[in-house]
Amino acid sequence: MKREILITSDGSTTIHLPDWDEQYHSKHGAIQEAYHVFIKSGFEPVCSKLESESKGNISILEIGFGTGLNAFITFLEGIKKEVKIEYVGVEAYPVLADEIQKLNYVSELNASEHQLIFDAMHEISWEDKLAISKDFQLTKRKQFFADIQDENVFNLIYFDAFGARNQPELWTEEIFQNMYTALKFKGILVTYSAKGSVRRALQTVGFMVERLPGPPGKREMLRATKNRS
C-alpha cells in the first residue's frame, strides 16, 4: 500500500495512506488532535484523579503505537505533571525507520532537548520493558488488538486505531470487551471516534460513555469509563 508524508494544518506531519484516504493522525492537525483527544480528555483527568487519591503512577495502553506521537507527548506532559508513567504501545504493523526520520514532531513541539528520547522510543526492541527515562517506562508490543489479554492493569487507554470505515474489525464489541477487561476500575478510554456504532459497542460491554467536543475537524469524540470492578 502506498504511504506518503503529509503536512497537516498545524504544521506537524502525519503518514497518509492514499488508497484508504486515511492518516495516522488528523490532517487538521496531528499535534492538535493528540493534545485534545488523548492529553486534555484522557491523561489530564486521570492524573487529577490519581493526585486526589495520593497516587502518583499512571499506566497507559495505546492502541496503535504508530508514529510514537502520542507516547512522546505523554512523556513531555508527564514531566510537567511529575508523574511516573508505565506506557504500553501495541502495534501490529510498525512504522518504518525511514518514515520516522521524516516526521517533525520534536521540532514542532520545541522539544529538541528530548530528541534522543523520541529516537529511543522507536529504536528499543519490541516486547521488552525499558526505562526511557527515570519516570517513563515503555513496552512496545507487536500484537493484534484482538490478542490483548491484560486484566485490570491500566488507568487509561488511548484508542487510536485506523477508522472503522477502513478497519471495522478494530471497533467491535469483542475488541472493546478486551479494553474493558484491561482497564482498572474507574479507568477511562478515549478515542477520536464519535460514530454511533462505536458508542453502542462501548456501552454494550459495560462502559459509561460521554460525548465530548472533538478536535479540529471533528464535532465530537468519545470518552468511556469502566464503572464496574
List strands and helices in order, with pairings.
Blueprint: E1 4-7, E2 13-17, E3 22-23, H1 30-52, E4 57-63, H2 69-81, E5 84-90, H3 97-100, H4 105-108, H5 115-123, E6 129-133, E7 136-141, E8 154-159, H6 173-182, E9 183-191, H7 196-204, E10 207-213, E11 220-226
Parallel strand pairs: 4-5, 4-8, 5-7, 8-9
Antiparallel strand pairs: 1-2, 2-3, 6-7, 9-11, 10-11
Helix pairs in contact: 1-2
Describe it for me?
31% of the residues lie in helices and 28% in strands. The chain has helices at 30-52, 69-81, 97-100, 105-108, 115-123, 173-182, 196-204, and strands spanning 4-7, 13-17, 22-23, 57-63, 84-90, 129-133, 136-141, 154-159, 183-191, 207-213, 220-226. The chain has one domain (31-226): Vaccinia Virus protein VP39 (Rossmann fold, 3-Layer(aba) Sandwich), CATH 3.40.50.150. The protein has seven helices and eleven strands. With 229 residues, the chain is an alpha/beta fold. The longest helix has 23 residues, at 30-52.
Mind telling me the CATH class? Alpha Beta
Strand content: 25-35%
Shape: globular
The main sheet orders its strands as 6-7-5-4-8-9-11-10
* Number of discrete domains: 1
Assign the structural class, choosing from mainly alpha, mainly beta, alpha/beta, alpha+beta, or little secondary structure: alpha/beta
Please give the number of β-strands.
11
CATH superfamily membership: Vaccinia Virus protein VP39
* Low-confidence runs of at least 5 consecutive residues: none
Name the average pLDDT.
Answer: 95
SS element count, helices: 7
SSE ordering:
EEEHEHEHHHEEEHEHEE
Helical content band: 25-40%
Please give the radius of gyration in angstroms: 16 Å
Do you know the CATH topology? Rossmann fold
Describe the main β-sheet briefly.
Answer: 8 strands, mixed
Query: N- to C-terminal separation?
Result: 42 Å
CATH architecture: 3-Layer(aba) Sandwich
